[in-house]
Structures are given as C-alpha cells and as structure tokens.
Amino acid sequence: MRLWRTCLTVAATACALVGGAGCFHDTLEPEELAWNPYRGGETLVFTSDRGGRDTMLVRAVIRGIYPGGVGTPLLAPEELMVAGTFTDPNHDRSLDGVLLEIRARTLREPAEINFRFAAENARFHADPYRLDSVAALPVTRLRTGAGVLDDVRVVVTNTFRYADRSNAVRSISWSRRYGYVAFEKMDGERWTLEQMYRVPVEPYNSRVGP
Known about the structure:
Number of strands: 14
Number of helices: 3
Number of domains: 1
Shape: globular
Radius of gyration: 18 Å
Order of helices and strands: HHEEEEEEEEHEEEEEE
Strand content: 35-45%
C-alpha cells in the first residue's frame, strides 16, 4: 500500500514542479468509472464445484495519473486501480496486488480495462481489453450466493502463454454491480461468488493528481 501511495504522490509532485508543462491528461468518464463496482472494504467469498473455498479482500480504490516513459508526455491518461489482498498459496500469509485497472480513453487510444484477478490458486493472465469490446460481449444470467445476476459478461483470456500453469484461469465472469462473480480454471474447475460483504478498512479511496 505504501508503494502505491508513493508512486501516485511522485506523479502529482512531478507535474506541479514543471508548472504543468506536458501534464495534459485525459480523465475517466462516468461511463468508464461505472465498470468498477468496488468502493474498498469488500470481502469476496468464492466456492468451487469441487468443494474449495477462497476469500479475497478489496483494500482500496485509487484514481490517479502516472508518469510516462521516455519520449512520452510526463503524465499518462487517468487510471483507476483496485488494490486487494489474497492468500499466498505457498506460505501462511496474505499478498497484496492490483485486481483491476481502468484507463481513460484518449484521442488516440480507446478506454481499456485490465482484469488482474488473483486468488489463492488462481491467476487470470490477460492483456488489457478495450472497454467497448467488453461492453459488446453477450450479457448472461448467473445464479450466485448473492442472488441471480442478469448483467454478467464472460471474459475469456486473450493470451494462452501461461495456460500450462496449474493456477491458470480460462475466463472470468464480470458484473458491473458486483465485479468478479465467477471464474473457470483451465482444468475446468469452476468457482462462483458465494457471498460478498463489507468490512471496515483504512479509508483510502482517493484521487491523486492535478
């Protein structure tokens, strides 16, 4: 968490130091932000069709702008990042990671969404998707512990370079109201959201930047 805070602070400070030169950036539109249902503090409990159970915690939702690379403007388009905690499969501890990213549309590039789902023995390896292509996916109904959801889209990985790993996930099911509601691993094991509830966490829903 401290690392993410430091990175975002550096981006905002750099922009201020140069007096705004090169600090033009595109902000996230309401329709782009609507693809993130999380606010921080959600606990997601998944169960599998093979009797497994796993829990993931959403720690924070962060909006910010980030330094570009060499030859790029100082600040890139605004992004939203959802930070979470999940169980380390190899040790008795929890790991922090980014679970979702949404990048604003620019004049040259469409808005993107990056599903970075991770659980104890599951990883969704995929490159970012165009947000409009995800929006165009068929909408399906899914029965979960949270009820029957009617706004679910199934997103299949767009890269199979890690398909041989035991934790590889073939697809995730996404709801604009609930977020991650199901996932299916390459070996066919299917996990479905059993319960989602909020727990108190350190307030850190923030927006960093000019």
